[in-house]
Amino acid sequence: MSLALLALVACVRAPAPPLVANPRVTSAAYGPALPAPPAPASAADAALVPVPGGVPLDPATPALGPADARVVVVTYSDFACPYCGHFFPLVLALAERRPDLRFVFGSFPLDSDCNPLIRNDLHRYACDAALAASCANLQGRYLELATLLYQYPEHITPPELPVFADRVGLDRDAYDTCVADPAARAALTEHVTAAVALGVDATPTVFVRGLDGSDAWVQVTGDPRAILAVLEASPRR
């Protein structure tokens, strides 16, 4: 399999707060029109793996949708991952169709700067991008910044990230203070380490609570169309 094709299948590691985005916001707020829903796929094509210990929910993690949602979707992603860049706008489109679902956007940069699993610069500056997004979340602008980062992954370098911050209208003084704060970077590393403990080692990784009407968690894997079909068919409030 070519490296280009592998990047579209999944972004994997090399072998060896509490502010929530406005759930009523529409895709038009994030720039270009979102892709149309993917071609029909069967939810049966996805694999559901129980997560016995559940998935801890940190209120500081960016989220979209009602806090009391019956079904919660947690996705761990990397802004430098092409697969994540394709998946993210489809998730936003689904959020518009299913405003009863809650989507939580976890970070899992494949970058040794903040990820203990990574031993090289697989996705250099992915940690910087994740930190920038976390700081944008403190100003209620996570989705706006995340959309730009996924659209221009080749520009997620430290000198260019402030340009993104300005483009989405962040308070630059607050943003600069946040990204320079060692506590903010430590919190990111702690977030990633917790994901590692859950077994996350690739992006995107998707966990869902409430598919069977209970509080049980499962990890959903498979073709993105199948994963979206599972979410689309999830119980409604």
What does this structure look like?
With 237 residues, the protein is of the alpha+beta class. Helix content is 37%, strand content 14%. The protein contains eight helices and eight strands. It has helices spanning 3-9, 82-97, 126-137, 142-151, 161-167, 172-180, 182-198, 224-232; strands at residues 11-12, 47-50, 63-64, 72-77, 102-107, 202-203, 205-209, 217-221. The chain has a six-stranded mixed beta sheet with strand order 2-8-7-4-5-3, sandwiched between helices. Helix 2 links the parallel strand 4 (72-77) and strand 5 (102-107). The chain is globular and about 45 Å long. The model is unreliable at 1-9 and 13-38 (pLDDT under 50).
Please describe the biggest sheet, giving its number of strands, its sense, and whether it closes into a barrel: 6 strands, mixed
Shape field: globular
**How many strands appear in the DSSP assignment?**
8
Any low-confidence stretches, pLDDT <50, length ≥5? Answer: 1-9, 13-38
**Total helix count?**
8
The share of residues in helices is: 25-40%
